[in-house]
Amino acid sequence: MKRITYTLAAVALLATACQQPAPTTVRLHGQLTDMGTTEVTMRYDGAASLVGDSRDITLHTDADGRFDTTLTITGPTYYSISRNTLYLTPGDDLEVNITQDNREATFAGRGASVNTYMKERLYPKAGSFLEGGSNLRADFAQTKALIDSLAAARRAQLDTLTDATPEFKLLEGARITADVANSYLSYPSYAIMMRRMAMTEGAVDSFYRAVGPEVATLMQSLTDDRLLDVAVVRDVLSTVTSPGNPVVEAAGSKLMLSPRAKELFAAADKVNTLRHRVDKAVIDEARAFADSLANRDFADELLVKVEQSGRLLAGQPAIDFAFTDVEGNEHRLSDFKGKVLYLDFWATWCGPCIQESPHFERLAGQFAGQDVTFIALSTDTSREAWFAFLKAHKKQLPQYNTTDAALGEGWLIYAIPRFVLIDRHFNIADAYAPRPSQPEAAEAIRRLLEK
Fold first, then answer.
1. Fewer CB within 10 Å, N- or C-terminus of the chain?
2. CATH of 2-113, one of 2.60.40, 3.40.1620, 2.40.160, 3.10.420
3. CATH for 322-450, among 3.40.30.10, 3.40.190.170, 3.40.50.720, 3.30.70.890?
4. What pTM value is reported for the model?
5. What does the pLDDT read at residue 212?
6. Lowest mean pLDDT: which of 2-16, 62-76, 196-210?
7. How far apart are CA 275 and CA 271, in angstroms?
8. Strand partners, 191
9. 319, 410 Cβ separation under 8 angstroms
């Protein structure tokens, strides 16, 4: 009788254990180094991130970059910290040590295996396996052979992961496929840059037509909606929406995007418009489009962007933020209230920004002694890199640096160079002002001074 009682008790305990709810939290702790701020953004990197960033999380660190936080998530999710991509699963307890160089990251604890694998993630904007052109060979045939061999090695590495779920392997297998497609598509730009290919429209067009059918086959294998959570998959599939795309033309009707993918890219296009021009007509059109979307995650993100963009309309109060000078003294934009302000958001790594800088200083000289202040604002997260650049490039204007979260959350600065005009009443005149190299910039400043 005792044996039966014990057996029943064991069954009851097992049943109770089986009824325990699945974990919904992730503990993330460790150290973030050289982030330039104690409030580090951990960016949501799933499909909806192409439209908006409301799912981003701010990690609060101490002065040494140490932090310990618990997140609530509903399922496995990609995030990114600087150049590091993380794959977090409910129940993870992950110790991280992260810098801006993903190769230096270390992970320990539950979830460490897959995140250690993620350290080797390639960057779409560097041409994936082309590695910024460093893997370019004498011609495309030799380059393709290298790309394919590197992809095979990466797949073998993925296959050896014993702690990875089938879902993770599905997503990361798709990343490799998309990296290959991206590498093929990126070849002409790098080959032209390194003089391995003639810089003619005919040569590029012929290349794409030749490689098009193979790329289309790779793309077709990426049309499962689950794979939209992988950034490079989104990048590669988005090329389908480009008018006159020779790859798509070569593929004919072979490549078909899903309704969800079509909505994603259409919503992203609306956001891209909002990032370059803000007026009532553009905002109303984006809001109406969001209301028509079947995928509410995309609609919700687009509506947030519509609301944020509305705060950048001409006549709205300027959004205040903090910045420091080269001596480390803190200033606020509102300290300059009472004058026309022309802001230049730039960074030391941004080529177009550096090209605009002499024009910005010449324009400031043109308006010297008038009621306008020119404010150069580096967005570099590394003050050391900023200092080194200023030492090598002498500037006439005072220089400032900012990593204030208001740049993204308020001013929606996602691409630089970006120029902003503010009137004497500290109201926005143009959140997307002309570049100083354009004659319209001087005209816009002059109009504000005459008011």
1. N
2. 2.60.40
3. 3.40.30.10
4. 0.83
5. 87
6. 2-16
7. 6
8. none
9. yes
